[in-house]
Hints:
The chain has 239 residues and is of the alpha+beta class. Helices cover 68% and strands 14% of the residues. The protein has a three-stranded antiparallel beta sheet with strand order 1-4-5. A three-stranded mixed beta sheet has the order 2-6-3, with no helix packed on it.
Amino acid sequence: MKAFTASLTRLPVRYSTVPRTMAFAANSRIMSVPQPSIMRLSLRTYADEAKPKEETEKKESATKKDENTNLTEEQKQIQDLQTKLDAKTKEAVELKDRLLRAVADFRNLQEVTKKDIKKAKDFALQKFAKDLLESVDNFGHALAAFKEEDIKKSKEISDLYTGVRMTKDVFESTLRKHGIEKLDPLGEPFDPNKHEATFELAQKDKEPGTVFHVQQLGYTLNDRVIRPAKVGVVKLEDN
């Protein structure tokens, strides 16, 4: 310690070149301003400078928050609307599918109903036709009973014959009007779907399997056989 103090005493002393009056005046001005006032002034100045910036940041933050809030609400509304739209779209698809199924079922029902009505109509007409066919057959038998010579000799017999024939023609015309046609297979090949063979007979001048005699006429209803024709069929000659 003594050595350090001795070294200090040997250092050269430098005197300030500033006039004492100026140094004194500066020191006097600095000393005249209280230190707490200087600190308050500095803090106030910093606060005044920082306040607008802070307010600006707060406003920007609030604006961003509002924008985020608005954006979030809009997104939520869009999402809700999209959900409702998807639900309505699904409902519309389901309704369309149900409608198409209902239309298809209705059309199928129409077709089935038409077929049932046609079947019922055909069945009723077929039964009615079968009943009429017996009458037509009887008229045919009656006409066959007339002899040509008797018709020529007697006017009364001729008129009776004409009346029976006309009545038979009216019956047959009524049958044709309702789709019922006569089936006369004379000279045609035998068809088991249309003909009923009541007997067979060998004949030299005819092809085997050919209808050579019609015992009873057949009838069809809309191309469907309602009564097969009873026929005689040619058979092969016995050797």
